[in-house]
Amino acid sequence: MRGIRGIKVATATLGLSAALAGTAVGLAGPASAACEGGYPPAQCTVALNDNRVRPGEEVGFRATGYEPGERVRGTVFSEPIRVGTWTANRNGVVQGRFTVPRRLSPGRHTFQLRGLESNVIKTARFTVVGRANNGNGNGNGNNNDSSLAFTGSDLALTAGAGAVLLAGGGALVIAARRRKHVNAGI
Question: Which of 30, 104, 128, 180 is 20 to 30 A (C-alpha) from 75?
Answer without folding.
Answer: 30
